[in-house]
TrEMBL record:
<comment type="similarity">
    <text>Belongs to the peptidase M50B family.</text>
</comment>
<protein>
    <recommendedName>
        <fullName>Zinc metalloprotease</fullName>
        <ecNumber>3.4.24.-</ecNumber>
    </recommendedName>
</protein>
<dbReference type="GO" id="GO:0004222">
    <property type="term" value="F:metalloendopeptidase activity"/>
</dbReference>
<keyword id="KW-0482">Metalloprotease</keyword>
<feature type="transmembrane region" description="Helical">
    <location>
        <begin position="421"/>
        <end position="443"/>
    </location>
</feature>
<dbReference type="GO" id="GO:0016020">
    <property type="term" value="C:membrane"/>
</dbReference>
<feature type="domain" description="PDZ">
    <location>
        <begin position="234"/>
        <end position="263"/>
    </location>
</feature>
<dbReference type="InterPro" id="IPR041489">
    <property type="entry name" value="PDZ_6"/>
</dbReference>
<dbReference type="InterPro" id="IPR036034">
    <property type="entry name" value="PDZ_sf"/>
</dbReference>
<dbReference type="InterPro" id="IPR004387">
    <property type="entry name" value="Pept_M50_Zn"/>
</dbReference>
<feature type="transmembrane region" description="Helical">
    <location>
        <begin position="6"/>
        <end position="28"/>
    </location>
</feature>
<keyword id="KW-0862">Zinc</keyword>
<keyword id="KW-0479">Metal-binding</keyword>
<dbReference type="Pfam" id="PF02163">
    <property type="entry name" value="Peptidase_M50"/>
</dbReference>
<keyword id="KW-1133">Transmembrane helix</keyword>
<keyword id="KW-0378">Hydrolase</keyword>
<dbReference type="Pfam" id="PF17820">
    <property type="entry name" value="PDZ_6"/>
</dbReference>
Length: 448
């Protein structure tokens, strides 16, 4: 077992993006609880970004509330008087209820307070998506624009797809955006793909365990970049790469790979991946001259050359058009994540592979600071935070909301002792999941 080489600059950039993203999400989530508690005349004792066991980095008391920043960057909290929460303040709960306490308020008010953080996260996701559409538009590749069809990797070929196939529909339903196809296959239990091949329409049946295979083995399947393009001239050569050392230059055009004629770009990339650690011979057209270039392919199968593909189609929005479009996109993301949770806990996925902790989440961010990618991930994480907090686990907002709904229906309020025990059980479940997810991160770092 060996630890992967660490690029500390990349780690720092990813960590900074994660901390900034979580700070925004946590502050606004907790603000939802805070402002609704204030509306209903509850006393808020603390409002903290990050957790503060034993001490805090910064704190200042204004009125009845202490505002601060903790030193454990894993979340945040508001402490509302008379509420059984992670503080487990039993001394306060042993005293008679006071008018300004959470437990003294009607069940419907307590329900609104508990759901407010979730609602703020959903609204934040809608807002970010809307502003992104207004700023950058919606970039996608129309499925019917792939003139030369898809690139079929080994798994795609195993299920019956071929390079050059043009995808027409999934289970008879057309998909406008090519980027949506892989996720639809994973989440919608697609049984067959209809393709056009050599002028004929065929239906390719998909195996029932395809989702499990793709997720558990981290296999790439029809990713958004898997489209065929005619081999263009090399657009860039990475300094110090195998291609640069072999003498390839910008503007060169590869016309043969180990003697086999090349027409499409995947006829370069796929055999390169199959030639890791080997020397390959490329026939290169430079201007009007043809020459042979021997390239020693490194162990990662990356020669270090890139070509310019056709730009995606971009839909631009005015400010007012972006608002409903952002809400629609947010709703699609919410639905997608709910489906992912069903797959995660439905037995199709190995939980040790499907769950990630802070390291796994940080790795979602790019190695260089990219505001578009940052806001896209922040919006997605906001939706995830909303759904996760809605789970009916006692220590989460959803658990507290469930008890409020029970009280509203039955007219019976759960006792304080019951709530204490439920909170303890919920915290144990959450801590166990956190340890499990963080353990997965560590295991992956040391994985062969």
């Amino acid at each position: 077992m060996t630890l992967l080489a660490i690029d500390w600059a990349t780690v720092g950039i990813k960590a900074a993006q994660l901390i900034l993203s979580l700070s925004i999400l946590v502050v606004l989530h907790e603000f939802g609880h805070y402002i609704t508690a204030k509306w209903f005349k509850c006393r808020v004792e603390k409002f903290y970004l990050f957790f503060d066991p034993w001490f805090s980095l910064l704190k200042k008391k204004i009125g009845d509330t202490e505002y601060g920043i903790g030193w454990v960057p894993l979340g945040g909290y508001v402490k509302i008087s008379g509420m059984i929460d992670e503080s487990m303040d039993k001394a306060q709960m042993a005293e008679p209820p006071k008018p300004y306490e959470f437990r003294s308020k009607p069940a419907w008010q307590r329900l609104i307070i508990m759901l407010a953080g979730i609602i703020v996260n959903i609204l934040l996701g809608f807002f970010i998506y809307s502003m992104m559409l207004w700023k950058w538009g919606d970039a996608y590749r129309p499925t019917d624009s792939l003139q030369y069809g898809i690139v079929a990797d080994s798994l795609a070929q195993t299920v019956g797809l071929q390079s050059g196939d043009k995808i027409l529909s999934l289970d008879g339903k057309k998909v406008a955006h090519f980027e949506d196809i892989p996720l639809n296959i994973l989440l919608d239990d697609v049984k067959s793909i209809q393709v056009s091949r050599a002028g004929q329409t065929l239906s390719v049946a998909l195996p029932s365990n395809l989702t499990s295979v793709i997720i558990n083995k981290h296999i790439h399947f029809l990713g958004a970049s898997d489209f065929r393009i005619k081999v263009p001239a090399i657009d860039s050569v990475q300094t110090g790469s195998a291609a640069a050392k072999a003498g390839l230059k910008k503007g060169d055009k590869i016309i043969a790979f180990n003697g086999a004629p090349v027409e499409f770009w995947d006829q370069v990339t796929q055999p390169t991946q199959a030639s890791k650690g080997k020397t390959v011979n490329l026939s290169v057209l430079r201007g009007t001259d043809t020459s042979m270039v021997a390239v020693n392919v490194p162990a990662d199968g990356i020669m270090g050359i890139a070509v310019q593909s056709e730009p995606p189609y971009i839909v631009h929005y005015t400010f007012w058009e972006a608002l409903p479009a952002g809400v629609a996109k947010g709703c699609r993301m919410l639905g997608s994540y709910v489906k992912q949770l069903k797959i995660l806990f439905g037995g199709k996925v190995n939980l040790s592979e499907g769950m990630s902790g802070p390291v796994g989440i940080a790795n979602l961010f790019p190695a260089t600071w990219d505001w578009q990618a940052f806001w896209s991930l922040t919006a997605f994480l906001s939706m995830i935070l909303a759904i996760m907090n809605l789970l009916p686990i006692p220590a989460l907002d959803g658990g507290h909301a469930l008890f409020c709904i029970y009280e509203m229906i039955t007219g019976r309020k759960p006792g304080d002792k019951f709530m204490e025990y439920a909170q303890t059980i919920g915290m144990v479940i959450i801590l166990a999941l956190m340890v499990f997810a963080f353990g997965n991160d560590i295991f992956r770092l040391f994985k062969k």
